[in-house]
Amino acid sequence: MTRFECMEALAARLTGELVVLSLGGSVDEWYTAAPHMRDASLFQQQLGCVTAQAFGLALGLPHRRVVALDTDGGMLFNLGILATLGVERPDNLLVVVWDNECYESIGGPPTHTASGVDLAAIARGAGIRNAHTAATLEDFTTLCESGLAPDGLYLVVAKVERSVRRELRRKHSDGREDKYRFVRHVEATEGIVIMGPSEHN
Predict the structure, then answer these.
(1) Which of 53, 87, 88, 131 lies in disulfide reach of 155, CB 3.0 to 4.6 Å?
(2) In angstroms, rounded to a whole number, what is the distance separating the alpha carbons of residues 158 and 152?
(3) pTM of the predicted model, to two decimals?
């Protein structure tokens, strides 16, 4: 199965959630698969920070479902977040890990999952009871439906193929614009002020 197919299946089930995802090849795929989630998606630029930032959002907005779209490389870079999740167990967080067994954005050298490292097993060992691996689109869709239910922490490792070139909508905004759009979306949907007006004239 491909990451884009999975994204389309997941996007079709999202309404009021907040999404955090990494930069790289997945950005334009998500931008194309989930145009209705544009302002509700925060594009994280640091490797290893996607799930950690989604965890922070889940704690700050416990009534809101938060979705992390991480990668195998990003998760391996910060395995400690799994231990934190296993202890804290936020019941409004769904973590999806796109596992294509390589660092695709730098040319495709293999990650440790290509040598048998099982991220779902590591997550279960850290205390995340609902940590599963999906190898088919049907399994992925079923697991995400369970993971989007408001009743517990969920992690899905999606074993996807390396991305193939396709016609995609391009995201032309930069990280600063993305951040402001996301913050303003949270403010509008929560009825709160996070970043007030500038004090400069």
Answers:
(1) 131
(2) 19
(3) 0.93
**Which of 189, 194, 196 has its CA nearest to residue 64?**
189
Helix residue spans in the chain (DSSP H): 3-11, 26-33, 50-60, 72-77, 80-88, 119-125, 137-147, 175-190
Could you read off the pLDDT of 177-191 as tens digits, one per residue? 888 999 999 999 999
What is the rounded CA–CA span in Å between residue 171 and residue 179? 14
The full set of domains in the chain, from first to last, is 3-190 (3.40.50.970)
Task: Encode pLDDT of 83-115 as tens digits.
Answer: 999 999 999 999 999 999 998 878 889 999 999
Residue 93, both tokens: 């967080």
Beta-strand relationship, 66-71 and 18-22: parallel
Q: Which of 67, 82, 60 is nearest to 19 (CA)?
A: 67
